[in-house]
Write a structure and sequence with these properties.
Order of helices and strands: EEEEEEEEEEE
Number of helices: 0
Shape: elongated
Largest sheet: 7 strands, mixed
Mean pLDDT: 96
Number of strands: 11
Length: 120
């Protein structure tokens, strides 16, 4: 069984910063791409950023230049540093990894979600 445990969400004022982390534990054997998705109130889930095992990154246009995704392959952990936060960054943030266990093939695993609220 694979678990993704997220931490770091909360309430922050506009212009502030927050850092999220997501650690995979359990029977995870190998991890490929890691990503952060988010869902604003009343909107669909969207990809915020992803990172390959070699460290290549992609950012959605709305977060580029403000968010930084990184990973620690030894710890199977992905991070999202969010700076210059705006009210429109408010939402639930989900981590996602494409990984496999020793017994199963490659599949997507998801975290439980963590709330980020940007408000004065």
């Amino acid at each position: 069984q694979v678990r993704l445990v997220e931490s770091g969400g909360g309430l922050v004022q506009p212009g502030g910063s927050l850092g999220l982390s997501c650690a995979a534990s359990g029977s995870i054997f190998s991890v490929d791409t890691m990503a952060w998705y988010r869902q604003a109130p009343g909107k669909q889930v969207e990809l915020a950023a992803h990172i390959t095992p070699s460290g290549n990154t992609y950012y959605a246009g709305s977060v580029k230049g403000r968010f930084t995704i990184s990973r620690d392959n030894a710890k199977n952990t992905v991070y999202l540093q969010m700076n210059s936060l705006k009210p429109e960054d408010t939402g639930v943030y989900y981590c996602q990894i494409f990984g496999r266990t020793r017994d199963a093939g490659w599949t997507d695993y998801w975290g439980q979600g963590t709330q980020v609220t940007v408000s004065s």
